[in-house]
């Protein structure tokens, strides 16, 4: 299938993955886009992205999912990473408390660079590692509630809730988009992006852009 613009798609949504290094962002993406998991995955350098077409409420949506390095020194320019993003999965590792404690830092960045109406889901990944859990589910859920975020625990390894978390995000984006267009509140540029006329993929400011998969 075409790797950039698919005429059969009704919408194109850009979404991003953020969170500390090693929490499993790249594996969540490869599980969702290609049904692949790697125990020996290397830290991401720069930015990568993948596509997947999803049917939501009778509409075909092309999700363009961006993945970046959790490590500061490998990250590409932040503003271009967030530009045009309509949703984010903010991921922490349930077996690493520090990755959970850093969620507030990621939220600050998200609020600085992301759009106001972004759909954000807080994701506690590696739920298969129950023996070494350091963050209780209720803790993550409670924090998400206080910050007005959705919440889900996932396992990229065991393929638990991966499909669900992406679908929940895309569905919410779709509902918001539809509501907006009904209210006539969308500006012209945004409508162009959604209808696929303008696709922000290879921004000049992004240093390393590699396509991981297209379905
Ligand atoms: N047990 C378990 N291990 C996982 C899971 N998801 C990812 N991992 C492992 O965690 C390690 C880091 O995963 P990555 O997906 O590379 O993490 P990342 O967040 O992309 O890291 P950066 O690219 O450095 O930001 C790898 O060894 C993965 O195999 C999971 O759900 N369960
Ligand atoms: Mg990665």
UniProtKB/TrEMBL annotation:
Which InterPro entries does this chain map to? P-loop_NTPase, Rab_GTPases_membrane_traffic, Small_GTP-bd, Small_GTPase
Q: Report membrane topology.
A: Lipid-anchor
Query: Which cellular components does GO assign to this protein?
Result: endomembrane system
Provide the alphabetized UniProt keywords.
GTP-binding, Lipoprotein, Membrane, Nucleotide-binding, Prenylation
Molecular function (GO) terms for this protein are: GTP binding; GTPase activity
Q: Which residues form a coiled coil?
A: none
Q: Which residues cross the membrane?
A: none
Record localization: Endomembrane system
Q: What protein family is recorded?
A: Belongs to the small GTPase superfamily. Rab family.
Name this protein carries in UniProt: Uncharacterized protein
| Species name | Lupinus luteus
What lineage does UniProt assign to this protein's organism?
A: Eukaryota, Viridiplantae, Streptophyta, Embryophyta, Tracheophyta
């Amino acid at each position: 299938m075409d790797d950039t613009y698919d005429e059969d798609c009704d919408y194109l949504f850009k979404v991003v993955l953020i969170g500390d290094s090693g929490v499993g962002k790249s594996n969540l993406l490869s599980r969702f886009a290609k049904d692949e998991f790697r125990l020996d995955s290397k830290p991401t350098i720069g930015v990568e992205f993948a596509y997947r077409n999803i049917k939501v409420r009778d509409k075909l949506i092309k999700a363009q999912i961006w993945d970046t390095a959790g490590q500061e020194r490998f990250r590409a320019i932040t503003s271009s990473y967030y530009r045009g993003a309509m949703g984010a999965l903010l991921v922490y590792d349930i077996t690493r408390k520090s990755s959970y404690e850093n969620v507030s830092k990621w939220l600050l960045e998200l609020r600085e660079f992301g759009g106001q109406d972004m759909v954000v889901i807080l994701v506690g990944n590696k739920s298969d590692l129950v023996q070494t859990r350091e963050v209780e589910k209720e803790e993550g859920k409670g924090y998400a509630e206080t910050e007005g975020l959705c919440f889900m625990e996932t396992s990229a390894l065991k393929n638990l809730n991966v499909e669900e978390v992406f679908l929940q995000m895309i569905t919410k984006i779709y509902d918001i988009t539809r509501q907006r267009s009904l209210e006539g509140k969308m500006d012209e540029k945004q409508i162009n992006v959604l209808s696929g006329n303008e696709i922000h993929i290879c921004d000049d400011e992004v240093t390393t852009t590699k396509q991981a998969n297209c379905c």
